[in-house]
Amino acid sequence: MHRPAWSSRLIVNGVLVLTAVYFLFPVWWLLVSATKSNADLFSSNGFWFAEMNLIENIQAVFARDGGLYPIWFGNSVGYGLAAAIGATITSGACGYALAKFRFPGDKLIFGGVVAGLLIPGALLTVPLYLVAASVGATNTIWSIIIPSIISPFGVYLCRVYAEGAVPDEIIESARMDGAGELRIFGQITGRIMAPALATVGLFSFVGAWNGFMLPLIMLSDRSLYPVTLGLYAWQADKGAATYNLILAGSLLTVIPLVIGFFLMQRFLRTGLTLGSVKG
């Protein structure tokens, strides 16, 4: 077997290292900045530590405004879990149906799903607000949860994955044994699609966790804010006086995402690779 030349491997590895540095550099800056006092943020090297104030900053974050930060953090967890569970169920069911059932308009529906991938989420915030306002759902958790459980990317991924990874013979055999469609999906094909479903769940959780535009438009009650919008509200209220607290709070918001990616990386890698290949 022909092996790539050492120069090609060097170039590829160099590009990978530069890419890793590009993405990790802001994380390093955030970690360093979260340990500083507000004065040190403006007087010390931005990429190296000064006096360690991380514990004090975190304590101040949790105490500010009567302890709103833990509420915001809990809201983000709730919104993220609701999005992950809801999007996993809806995307898995829709993707499986589009892959394994033939009905009038199935190609048109899948075309609409693909078209949905091309629409920026921010473009839909105003229409979603108008719909929510018409039914009195603004400033409620449902105005955040319901839009987040619909994922065109999730439907697309599950459809492609199911078409390539779920054998028709297994489905036909289960039907001959008397299993209903819900049982087949829940106990057989759903397990085969587990990597794709885990990928959809993780991406949906991250999307809801990082959500900003939709909560900004939908919510006015600060007790319903996710942590992203809460930190923005602090900056708008206090300006530069709270930079150290905002950075410490931002560092805390990264931790669940890092843990989630490490726990789910096996499913994520499998779901994205196998889902792109048919047969």
From TrEMBL:
Q: Name one Pfam family in it.
A: BPD_transp_1
Q: Which SUPFAM superfamilies match?
A: MetI-like
What does the record list as coiled-coil region(s)? none
**Domain ABC transmembrane type-1, which positions?**
73-264
What residue ranges are annotated as transmembrane?
12-31, 77-99, 108-129, 141-162, 192-220, 240-264
Which InterPro entries does this entry report, sorted A to Z? MetI-like (IPR000515), MetI-like_sf (IPR035906)
Classify the source by domain of life.
Answer: Bacteria
Tell me where it resides: Cell membrane
Q: Sorted alphabetically, which keywords does the UniProt record give?
A: Cell membrane, Membrane, Transmembrane, Transmembrane helix, Transport
Its record classes its membrane topology as:
Multi-pass membrane protein
Q: Which family does it belong to?
A: Belongs to the binding-protein-dependent transport system permease family.
**Name of this chain's protein:** Carbohydrate ABC transporter permease
Q: Which organism is it from?
A: Microbacterium wangchenii
